[in-house]
Amino acid sequence: MTGYAQVRGQLNGLGFTLSLKSVNHRFLDIHFRTPADTDALEVKLRRALKERIGRGHIELTLTVERGGGEAFTFNRPLVGGYIEAFRRIAREFDVRAEPDLNALLKLPGAMDSNSLPAGGELETAVLAKLPEAVARLNDMRAEEGRGMERELRERMARLQAATAEVEKLRAVMVKAHMERLHARLRELLAGHVDPERVLQEAALLAERSDVHEEIVRLGTHVQHFLGLLEGGGGEVGKKLDFLLQEMNREANTLLSKTTGVAGEALRITEMGLAMKAEIEKSREQVQNIE
Known about the structure:
- The protein is an alpha+beta fold.
- It is built from 8 helices and 4 strands, in the order βββαβααααααα.
- The chain has 2 domains: 3-143, no CATH class; 145-286, no CATH class.
- 63% of the residues lie in helices and 12% in strands.
- Strand 1 (3-11) and strand 2 (14-23) form a beta hairpin.
């Protein structure tokens, strides 16, 4: 889920800003933009983020400022050399482009860390601010989550309505299959076919004649899905995704049983396709839920 948060801190005349930005992602994917020589801090920040966030593409940015608002210094020779080389290459190959400053500042040594506090003081101060930043980020993500929950509930309601209509039409489909069964049996008997084959054909058509089990299982899965939305719990997104996979399996089975039916029973096929559409759209949403 998407969100943004920013917190500020002070340390021995230096100010720092810690920013977190998240966008949708099936897994937890963390990226850092921090001053040079803060590798140890990144390791600790990564560990702390994994403890607090389950999913999302997370971008953490740490900037340090001197007292009086002066920006944290950069390595002028390195930065200047990079820009000059970039423009020389652009002129040589007749390419119209400008250097990417975001990429530039990620170069090792681009930011001058000479004035960073020693003895782990910066690590301690930044890590102390991280919970506040994550809390603000999660507040924004939770707001998006509430909107997502409303949409999922609406989709489950439409899925329940489609299931209820299939239940009403079940008798029509059973009748259509029984008519096919009788016609098939007459063909087989008229052709003096082996009785064993007659029984096999009858058993196969009888098995395909009813969708009651699929309807019951779909209803159970929907109720379980709504219960998870209500109660939450750990890794609820993965549980919801699993339930939607099971719903999709039942919808596919239901559709396979309507193959060849005609008349009013075709309405069941329409409802089955509508179910699959709601399930697929719901799966797109739950991929982003923790």
